[in-house]
Each structure stands twice: as C-alpha cells, then as structure tokens.
C-alpha cells in the first residue's frame, strides 16, 4: 500500500501542476489584482522552479530503482516542453523557452536537495553504526 500511495501522490501533484499550466487563467483575477506586474512575474517563475523541484524530490521518494528514477527525471524534463507547447494553443497563454529553462533549473534544484539529503542520511548511518570490535592482535 505504501508503494501505491507514493505513486498516487506523485501522479496527483503532476496532474494538478499540468492542469494549472494548461489552464487559460491559472490565477484568479481577484487574487492577481493585488500584485504588481514585477511581483507576479517573480512569483510565477519561482512557482515554476519550485514545482519542478518538488516533483523531483517526490520522484526521489518513489520506491523505484535508480535507472527508473532517472527515467522519471527525464520525463519531468520533457514535461515542460509539452506544457509550453500546449500553452501556445491556449489563449491568452503563450509558450516560453525561458519557462522551460526555469523548470529545468527547478529539476536541478530538486536533484541537489536529494543529493544533500542522501549525504546527510549516509553520514547519520555511519555515525550511528555500532562500533565493530577489533580482531585480537591488531592495533
């Protein structure tokens, strides 16, 4: 059941993100009205990077072998290309190479988080491992 839950969580977030990326007006006007154009831009691009970083971390938590993890990462790298192409057919949206690059930056950040978390976990395992008794006559 744990496995099904991990996959369901990943697919749920990927599906929600895809839906919002392909929606003609992803942020209700009543919400966007209070922000300056510059702040809207920064929030939107930060959300792009953050969402893909989050999805990458979720992918790292899936109970799959390393080669399959990298297949998911490749799929995540292709996903923004598809959604940006899709946005070009969704007025008033438009596709953007810049957004794809920002999404890839988010994937890279997610990979960095996973790498750092793996290093911390490895250090803890080494620190918490019981001391091996020395063989007699050594030392």
List the helices and strands and how they pair.
Blueprint lengths: L1 H21 L6 H4 L4 H24 L5 H22 L9 H32 L11
Helix pairs in contact: 1-3, 3-4, 3-5, 4-5
Structure, explained:
This protein has 139 residues and is mainly alpha-helical. It has one domain (2-22, 38-128). The protein has five helices and no strands. Helix 3 runs antiparallel to helix 4. The radius of gyration is 21 Å and the shape is elongated.
> What is the molecular shape?
elongated
What is the rounded distance between the termini? 49 Å
Structural class: mainly alpha
Number of helical segments? 5
What is the percent of helical residues? over 70%
Biggest beta-sheet profile: none
Number of strands: 0
The radius of gyration is 21 Å
Unreliable residue runs: none
Share in β-strands: under 5%
Rounded mean pLDDT score: 90
Compressed to H and E, one letter per element, the order equals: HHHHH
How many structural units, i.e. domains?
1
List its salient traits.
mainly alpha; 139 residues
Quick summary:
The chain is mostly helical. The chain has helices at 2-22, 29-32, 37-60, 66-87, 97-128. The protein has one domain (2-22, 38-128).
């Amino acid at each position: 059941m744990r496995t099904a839950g991990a996959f369901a969580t990943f697919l749920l977030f990927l599906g929600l993100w895809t839906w919002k990326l392909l929606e003609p007006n992803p942020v209700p006007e009543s919400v966007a009205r209070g922000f300056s154009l510059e702040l809207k831009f920064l929030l939107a691009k930060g959300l792009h990077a953050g969402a893909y970083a989050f999805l990458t971390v979720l992918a790292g938590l899936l109970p799959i072998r390393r080669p399959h993890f990298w297949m998911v990462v490749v799929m995540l790298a292709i996903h923004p290309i598809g959604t940006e192409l899709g946005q070009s057919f969704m007025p008033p949206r438009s596709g953007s190479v810049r957004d794809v690059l920002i999404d890839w930056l988010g994937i890279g950040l997610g990979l960095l988080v996973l790498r750092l978390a793996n290093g911390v976990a490895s250090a803890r395992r080494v620190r918490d491992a019981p001391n091996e008794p020395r063989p007699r006559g050594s030392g």
